[in-house]
Amino acid sequence: MSYLEFYNFKEQPFDNTVDEKFYFNNSQHDEAQVRLKYAIDNMKGLGILVGGIGTGKTTLARMMLEDLSEHQYEAALLVIVHSSITAEWLLKKIAMQLGVREPSDNRVELISQLFRRLVSIKAGGKKAVVLVDEAQMLNSREIMEEIRGLLNLEEAGSKLITFILFGLPDLDDCLSLDEPLKQRTGVRFKLTSLQQDIVCDYIRHRLNVAGCEREVFSDTAIRAIGHYSQGIPRLINTICDNALLEGYLLKREVVEDDLVKNVANDLGLIPAEAAS
Amino acid sequence: MDKNQIMREAQKYAAKGMIDKAIEEWNRYLAANSTDGVAFNTVGDLYLKKRANADAITAFRTAAEIFAREGFHVKSMAVYKKVLAIEPNNADIHAAIADLESTRGFSASASEYYAKAAELYSGTGEVGSTLRCYQRLSELSPQDVALRTKLAEALIKAGKSDDGIARFLEAAAIYAKNGNDAAAEATYGRLAEIAPQSATVAGAVAKRLLQQGKAGEAVARLKPLITPDVADVDLLSSYAEICRAAGRTDDAVDAAKRAVNNDPSCIPARKIICCTSFQAGRAEEALTLLAPLLDEYRAAQDWENVLELLQVWAANAPENPDVHQKLYDAYLKLDMKQEARQELKNLGELYYNGDQRQKAFHVYENLNREDPSDSTVASRLEELREEFAGSAIADSEFSIGDEVATDMGSIGASSGAQNITGDSGTISFELENFSAAAEFSSSTSDTSLGGDISLDMSKEPREEISLDMSTFEMETSAGGGSSIDLSRDEAALTFPEKEAGAIPFSAEGLEEAAPARSSGIPEEVLAENLDEADFYVKQGFVDDARQIYEKILSLDPSNQRAAKGLAALGGGQAAPQAAPKDDIFSLDMGNESGADQSFDLDLSGEEKAEDIGLSLAGSDEFVIDEVETAAPAETKGPTLTPEDLALRESFKDFREGINQQIDAGDAETHYNLGIGYKEMGLMDEAISEFQLVSSNPAFMVNGYTMLGACYREQGRFDDAVAQLRKGLDIDGLSDDDRYAFLYEIGDTLEKQGNTEEAIQTFETIVQGSPEYRDVLDRLANLKNLGTNKPAGKNQRISYL
User: Fold this and answer.
1) Strands, DSSP E only, in chain A?
2) When comparing pLDDT for A238 and B584, which is higher?
3) Higher pLDDT, B110 or B490
C-alpha cells in the first residue's frame, strides 16, 4: 500500500511536475495572465514575468501556452535548460518551432526564412508568440541583441512576433545587457509568494483535484506549511508531499503541524536555532 | 500503432523461422508506412525465404522505387539486382538499373543495361520500350553510329518517321564527318528510299552533294521541290545556299528572300542575302544586314559564320580597318593564330599608311611582343618609336578590335592613362568594347570589381607595370614597353564577361576543382565507388564488390580502402598498413594513428543506417533513443524454445563452415559477420564476432559499440554499459567517439531505469558539447521538465 491508497487519492496531489489540471488560478496568476495576454494580443513585442524560485512561473508559462489556441496563435515554448546555448542556436530553434522548414545554417538566410514565415503567419490571421522559460539563463548580450533584432521585424507597421520571457529576478540583469531591448518591454509582471489564506486554498484545491474527499491536513498543519514554505508553491508541494508520506508511515489519518515541522526540518527549511 | 513494437514482433517471428507471421507483421506496419523502402526490402527477403518469388519481386521493386525516389541510387540498384537474381531477363529491371546508372553518370554501365533491356523488350514486341532504350543508348553514345541507325530503323518501323529520318540524318552526318563516305552514301540512299518526297532528306542529300563539290547535282536535286508555293524555310535556305555555292546568285537571292519573307529570323537566308549583296557591289544594303547578323552569330558563338561574313566584307572593303579588327578577333576565336597575326599586320599597315601612326605603334608593339624575331615588325616598331620618342602617348582608346588579349595572360595595352597615386587609389583601364575595373589598396585585402582600370602611362621612362589583382599589390619595374600583364586567374577575377567579343576569360578556371588523386580520379568519384562496393559486400553481392575494388586498384594501386576491401573478399593484394584517410560510412573506423573518424549512430533515415547495420528492423527510424517503453527487467537473455534450439543447431554448422574459411585475424570480415548475425537476430553469434574484433585496435570503437547494442537488445543493460565504458578507455579516442559512447551509455542507463546515472552521463556530454544530437532534450526529459499535455501539444515545446 502506498500513501495514495492510504489517503484514498486517485493520484499524487503534490507532484512538482507541471500539470494543468492541478493549476490553481489565484488572483495573482490571473492578473499575470491577463497582462501577458494583452501583450500578446496587441503585439507589444516583449513581455516579462519574473518571480522567485517555485513561485509558479513554469506553470504559468505552460498555462499560457495552453491558452494560446492553435487556431489563433503560432506559439512556441522554449525551455532553457543550459546556459551554453548560442544566439545562432536560439534563432534556429525559434525558426524551427515557428514552422520554418529546413532552417538554413547561414544566419542571414535564416532570418529571411523566419521573416517570410512570420509574414505568412500574419497573413494567415495568426499571431506569432515565443514563450521562453528559464530565460534568465540567456545571459548573453548576443542573445539579447538577437531577440531585439527579431522584435524589429515588422510588416505594415505592426510587429510580427511577441516574446514573453519567464525567469528568475536575474532576468532583469540579462535584459540590462541590451538596454534598447529592456526599453522595449511592453508588459512586466512579478510573481510573489502566496499569502497564507491563498496557501490554504491552494492546498485544498490540489487535494480536491487528486480526489481527496476528506481533510488530511489540520488547520494548524496548513498554517505551518504556509509558514515554512513562505508561500512558495513549489515548497508547499514538497512539504505537503513529504508530510503525507510521513503521515502514511506513521499511520496518521490527519497530518498535524508537528509532522509538518519535522518535514520542514528535514528539508532544511528551518534555521538551526529555530529547529532546536 | 507502435511501430517499434511491430518491428520487434516481426523480428522475433523471423528469428524463429515463422516467416508468414513475420510477413504479416511487416505488412501491418507497411499499411501505415508505405514509403519505408527498407521495410519493403525486408519483406522481400522474407518472401524469398519462403520461395514466393512473385511477391518477393513486387516487394523488392517497391523498395527499389522508393530508394530511387529518395535519391539512394546505390541501394536502389542493389535491390533491383536482387530481382535480377530471381528473374535475370526482367527487361523493366534492366531498364531501371540503366536509368540509375545513367543518373549517376556511369555511361558504360548504363549502356550495357539499356542494351540488354532493348534486346529483351524487342523480343517481347514492346516497341515503345525498345525505342526508349535505344534512344537512351544513342544519347549515351553519340558517336555510336550503328546504334543510331538501329534506332532509326526501329523508329520508322514504329511509325515515327520524322524521328527515324532525323536519326538517319545524324548517322549519315557522323559517317561523313568520319570520312566513311560509303556508309554515308548508303545511309542517304536508305533515306531516299524511306522518304523520297521529304524536303529534309532532299536538303541533306543536296548538302552532301555540295560538300562533294557537286553543286550542279545538288541544285538539280532540290529544284523540283522549290515550287512557287513552298513555304518551308529550311528548304528554301538550303536551296539558296546551294545556289550561291553553284554561282547561281539570282536564284540564291530569290530563294533567300522567300525564306526571309516567311521567317524574318531565318539567319542563314539573311546571311546569303548579305553576302550576295556584297558580291553584287551593293555594299550599303549588305552593311545594313551585316551588323545584326554578326551580332547573332557572335551571340551563338558561331565564329565560322562570323569569319565568313567578315571575309566577304573585307574582300569588298579592304581599306576599312574596322573589318580587319573584327577579322583579327574572329581568327583568335577560331584559334587561327597565324591568320590572326597576319590580320594584325594588315591592320598595322593600314594605320601606318593612313594617318594613324599612334595606333600603328600600338599594333606593332603588340606584334613585337608576341614575336620579337619578326624583323619586319621590329624595324617598323623602331621607326615608330623614334617618331614618338620624348612625347607622351596621349590618352586614347586603344583598340585592336574587340579583343585586347592575344592569349590568356596578356592585355597588350599600352595606352590609356589615368591616375595612379601612391599605393592606393583607383586603377582604370578602358579599351574599346571592354572595360574592367578594380579598386585597390596597398593592404591587399580588398578587391572590388566593377569600374575602370586606367594607368598613367605618361611616366618616363616607360615602365612595365604588373598588377597582381589577386593581392592588389602594385609593383613597378623599369623595362621596355608598357603593358599590363595579368595572370589568367587574376584576369578572370577582374574582367566580367561582356557580349560576344569580350575578353575570353571566365571565372570558371578559378573555381577550385576537387583535388584529384594521383590516379587522376576525382575524390568524390572514388569515394562513391568505394561506398558502393562496401554496400554490395553487405548485401552479399561479392562479385560486384570485387569488380569495383579491382577496378579502383587498377587505376589507383595505392588505394588502401580498396585493397582492404578486396583482401577481405579473399582476393588481391594485402592491405598496406598505413592509415586510411577516406571518408567511410562505418566500416573502416580506425587507423594506427587514431585519426579522428566518427561513428555516427544517428539513424535518421540516411544510408548510413543500413550500412552501420543498426537498422535491425529494417526501418530508418529505428533510432534507439526513440523506443518509448519502460525499462524492462534485466534479463540474461531470451529463453530458448525447442524451435530456437533447432535453429541454433543448424546455424552452428553454418558458422563453423564460415569460420573455417576466415582467418581469425581478419577483423573486418568478423565484424561484417557480426553485423549480419545481428540483422538476423542472432545476438549470441553477433556478440562472439564483435568480441573477436574488439581486441583489434582498428575495430575497437565499432566493436564495443556493437557489443553495447547487442547486449542492449538482449536486455542485458549492465553488460551493455560495461562494454560501452570499455570503449571510453580506448587510447586516442576522439571527442566525437567519446560523446557517442557517452550517449549510448546514457541511453542504456535510461532504458534500464537508472535515471540518475543517465542524467549524469548526459550532463557530461552537455558540458563538452551542448549541441550534440538531442542531448539537451534527453536531459530535459529526464529532469522531468516535460508536461502531461496530450502528445499533440508537445511539439510546441522545445528544450534548449
Assistant:
1) 46-51, 73-79, 127-133, 154-155, 158-159, 161-167, 185-191
2) A238
3) B110
Q: Say yes or no to pLDDT of A132 above 60.
A: yes
Backbone angles phi, psi at A274, to 5 degrees: -70, -35
Read off the pLDDT of each residue in B155-182 and give the average, rounded to a whole number: 83
Residue range B14-69, pLDDT digits in tens: 777 788 888 998 888 888 888 888 889 889 988 988 889 999 999 999 999 998 88
Nearest to B776 among A58, A82, A97 (CB): A82
Task: Specify the pLDDT at position B796.
Answer: 81
Whether the CA torsion B663, B669, B675, B676 is positive or negative: it is negative
Could you give the ipTM of this predicted complex?
A: 0.73
Rounded Cα–Cα distance for residues B49 and B13 (Å): 13
Domain boundaries, chain A: 27-191, 194-267
Chain A interface includes B789 (CB < 8 A): yes
Residue that the C-alpha cell 564476432 belongs to: B689
Quote the longest CA-to-CA distance of chain B. Answer: 111
**Mutation for B interface: A57, A73, A83, A84, most B CBs within 10 A:** A84
Which residue stretches of B354-395 are H helix? Answer: 357-370, 375-388
- Supply the DSSP string of B499-510, one letter for each residue: STTS-S--GGGG
Is any Cβ of chain B less than 8 angstroms from the Cβ of A20? yes
- Searching chain A, which residue's CA lies closest to the CA of residue B767? A84
Under an 8 A CB cutoff, do A81 and B780 touch?
yes
The predicted pLDDT at position B153 comes to 81
pLDDT at A262 over 50: yes
Q: According to the model, what pLDDT value does residue A212 have? A: 86
Q: Are B89 and B109 in contact (CB under 8 A)?
A: no
* A to B CB pairs, distance under 8 Å: 63
Give the model's pLDDT for residue B35. 87
Q: Whole-number mean pLDDT of chain B?
A: 71
User: Which grid cell sits at B370?
Assistant: 608576341
Pick A194-267's CATH classification: 2.60.40, 1.10.8, 1.10.3470, 1.10.10. Answer: 1.10.8
- B781-793: pLDDT as tens digits: 787 544 333 334 4
What gap in Å lies between CA B206 and CA B203, rounded to an integer?
Answer: 5
- Residues B605-652: tens digit of each pLDDT: 333 333 333 333 333 332 323 333 334 344 444 455 554 454 455 445
Please give the Cα distance from B222 to B24 (Å, whole number).
72
CA distance B739 to chain A (A): 17
A97 interaction partners in chain B (CB closer than 8 Å): 796, 798
Helix (H) or strand (E) holding B478, with range, is strand B473-478
Closest residue to A76, CB basis, from B779, B787, B798: B798
Please check whether residue B770 touches A, CB under 8 A: yes
Say yes or no for a CB contact (<8 Å) between A62 and B800. Answer: no
- Quick one: pLDDT at residue B724? 94
Q: CA of B613, closest CA in chain A: separation in Å?
A: 27
For residue B215, the 8-state DSSP code is H
Does B343 or B768 have the greater pLDDT score?
A: B343
Distance to chain B for A224, nearest Cα, Å: 28
Measured between beta carbons, which residues in chain B are less than 8 angstroms from residue A75?
796
For B797, the closest chain A residue by CA position comes to A77
Domains A27-191 and A194-267 equal at CATH topology level: no
Question: What kind of fold does domain A27-191 have according to CATH?
Answer: Rossmann fold (3.40.50)
